[in-house]
Amino acid sequence: MSEPLFLKGVLQEKIWGGDKLKKEFGYPSPSNKTGELWAISAHKNGPATVSNGIYEGHTLDELWKEHRELFGNQEGEVFPLLTKIIDATDDLSVQVHPDDAYGLEHEGELGKTECWYIIDAEEEAEIIFGHHAQTKEEFTRMIDEGQWTDLLRYVKVKAGDFFYVPSGTIHAIGSGIMILETQQSSDTTYRVYDYDRTDDEGNTRPLHIQQSIDVTTIPHTDPVPAQTIRNVGDSTLTTLVTNAFFTVQKWMIKERTPFTAEGAYTLVSVLEGSGQLMIDGSSYNLNKGMHFIIPSGISRWEIEGDLMIIASVPGKEADQLD
């Protein structure tokens, strides 16, 4: 019998982290500097572990290597997606990610296109999203001269906002913001600016100026993903973005709602509420903070309750990347 793969993620301490992952979701945070939960991850720097069923105790990267049938026998050296929850108690560094070609050539791993669903944001919270330089020469000069206020583009955010962040986009999550991030499975980040801050030992974190200049999209243009909304009774299913790497949806469940698989497998994160997942006559409890995968072989399921869920499926090209 096919069953969902419920996952125990990996918590990551960060210089800018806090304690909201424990307060809001009950995760066993190791400290008050916990910045990220790698919730659905097969990346070597934080693979999640299956917590139920016949694969209990196996990590997601092990299943990708040894039981590819769970994922529709998709090709590719690595599991293509990674889902995180990020608690930015302080500002993240101003950064940019490479595309696949640059990432594979220079770092030996995929590039990083990502997207953010804003779970919570303090009043007046803002992100950095893009820049104002019109040419690479202007971009380089403004970095060299430290003209950060003039260079960087600031955007105020609120809970429920969504941002698509393709590789090459200058960005930073600001303090007081919690997000769910869906991204390519990559841990390559090029820091452009880190506010000259130091860690507990007085050390600054390394910057990657030349790599950032190499990969940043200039000039910046805001991506505008095509979004669609489908109502199923009182439930609302919104497609937030579709690209070569992933399709991400927001499911607002208000009554028993049927689903048909739209990809080889589906990544699911419960951000609010509680309810039930029904598959082939079996029922599974769903609660805030749970993350799971509906594997290949399960083509239909139902969810009932009062829940807000972010779900994703791999894009058509994600399985072709080695």
Q: Describe it for me?
A:
With 322 residues, the protein is mainly beta. The protein has 2 domains: 5-215, Jelly Rolls; 228-320, Jelly Rolls (Sandwich), CATH 2.60.120. 12% of the residues lie in helices and 42% in strands. The strands form 4 sheets. Strands 1, 4, 14, 15, 16, 17, 18, 19, 20 and 21 form a 10-stranded antiparallel beta sheet that branches. Strands 2-3-5-12-7-10 form a 6-stranded antiparallel beta sheet, with no helix packed on it. The protein has a 3-stranded antiparallel beta sheet with strand order 9-8-11. The model is unreliable at 318-322 (pLDDT under 50).
List the topology elements:
Blueprint: E1 5-8, E2 10-18, H1 20-25, E3 34-40, E4 49-50, H2 60-66, E5 81-88, E6 94-96, H3 100-106, E7 114-121, E8 126-131, H4 136-144, H5 148-151, E9 152-156, E10 162-165, E11 171-172, E12 177-184, E13 190-193, H6 209-215, E14 228-232, E15 235-242, E16 246-253, E17 257-260, E18 266-279, E19 282-287, E20 291-294, E21 300-314
Antiparallel strand pairs: 1-4, 1-20, 2-3, 3-5, 5-12, 6-13, 7-10, 7-12, 8-9, 8-11, 14-15, 15-16, 16-21, 17-21, 18-19, 18-20, 18-21
Quick rundown:
By secondary structure, the protein is mainly beta. The chain is 12% helix and 42% strand.
Largest sheet composition? 10 strands, antiparallel
Strand segment tally? 21
User: Order of SSEs, N→C?
Assistant: EEHEEHEEHEEHHEEEEEHEEEEEEEE
So what's the CATH class of the largest domain?
A: Mainly Beta
Going by CATH, the architecture of the largest domain would be Sandwich
Q: Look at the helices and sheets and give the structural class.
A: mainly beta
Radius of gyration: 20 Å
Query: Please, what is the CATH homologous superfamily of the largest domain?
Result: Jelly Rolls
Q: Extract low-pLDDT stretches.
A: 318-322
Helix content: 10-25%
Strand composition percent: 35-45%
User: Can you tell me the overall shape?
Assistant: globular
Mean pLDDT reading: 95
